[in-house]
Design a protein that fits this description.
The protein has helices at 34-44, 177-183, 273-279, 321-324, 331-334, 360-363; strands spanning 5-9, 21-24, 65-70, 75-82, 88-91, 104-114, 117-130, 133-142, 152-155, 163-165, 171-173, 191-196, 209-213, 226-229, 241-249, 252-262, 269-272, 287-288, 294-297, 308-312, 315-319, 341-349, 356-358, 366-371, 376-381. A hairpin with a 2-residue loop joins strand 20 (308-312) and strand 21 (315-319). By secondary structure, the protein is mainly beta. The chain has a nine-stranded mixed β-sheet with strand order 18-19-22-17-23-16-15-20-21, with helices on both faces. It starts with a strand and ends with a strand. The protein folds into two domains: 5-195, Acid Proteases (Cathepsin D, subunit A, domain 1), CATH 2.40.70.10; 220-381, Cathepsin D, subunit A, domain 1 (Beta Barrel), CATH 2.40.70.10. Keywords: Aspartyl protease, Hydrolase, Protease, Signal.
Amino acid sequence: MVKAFSILLLSAACAVASARSIKAPLHKRGSPTAKDVVHADTHRWANLKSNSKIIPALNNEFSYFIEVDMGTPAQKTELLFDTGSSLVWVADSQFKGSKSKTIKDLKFANLLEYGSGNVTIDFYSDSLAIGGYKVKQSFGIASNVSAIGTNGIIGFGPLDLAGVTNQHNKTYAIPTPMDNFYSSHQISTEVVGVDFRPIWNGAQQASNGEIDIGGIDHSKYKGKLTYIPVTKKSPAKYYWGVDIPRISFGNHVASTGRSGIVDTGTTLILLQQNILEKLFSYVPGATLDSNTTLYTIPHGKLNKLKDITFTIGSKPFTLTPQQYMIPQNQYENWELTKGVHYTYFSTLGFDASLDAIIGQKFLENYYSVFDTTHHRVGLAPRK
């Protein structure tokens, strides 16, 4: 019997191919502006250096949250689903450790450094359940989360990101939730399949996502999955990093020999600024908007837009202009100016150690698989 379970992310009517479907609502808190989204995405990686393993900051808007049960008796909370981190932590306003009969104090703390601030986390061990699947999980409880802007995360990144160092400079390797589900024989392979969907028609939230923990939903994509091994380039190799040999605008090659990170916790598509400027240099007047820091296309130049193709591994993955431009019926939600045409692209700066962050706005067009067992990422066109 294939062991897998599915998490439905705000999806009211989604076909599920795995043996058991576990539904968990996903909520967007508040109405972010374009500035909020860009600030959160870029500051997420602001402290990352070429050989650093700092856990990046998390954006809390336009993101996917999983409902989980923590402690005994169970306390329900929503944690941000993030492949850019491998730790689990929750704000003390969302989980009261004193109310759990099974909690164990691990007696060490860790300061997580974020682009937008720092947060001190005290680590404990207790039960964590998603649907009917329960494990004993080490996680952090944080009391000073105002600078971070989210109430907790559940990380599905590689194990390389799961180490924490206490106040005495001792490092602990903390098994990820995926590791614990696998070692307890509740899933048969350490794989998570991700199906994200765009938001349309001016909606502020929608039933638009699903993840399969321990399995892949083959009904969600067309053709075959292309698997790309995790890159050997630093610092992307510590994450779900992939080689990007070529980035093209139509028939024009804008950049070669790059690498980047596939990350569900980043909303936009972020590129080093020199790559970004070359990519849109084929559209007269295209520029980085000083207010939002989104790349914009002048009115009357939409006919100059071409498909943008990321060659990832050896396979081309293309976004059409309709897929990388923000729909005008979403402008009010993002607080954007009418008469200007905005893309989902923004900048990492000129001196960033990463070339690219492939975020949700890319993944809403491609089914993605994060395969810990084989140290690879899978991509296929979404149905």
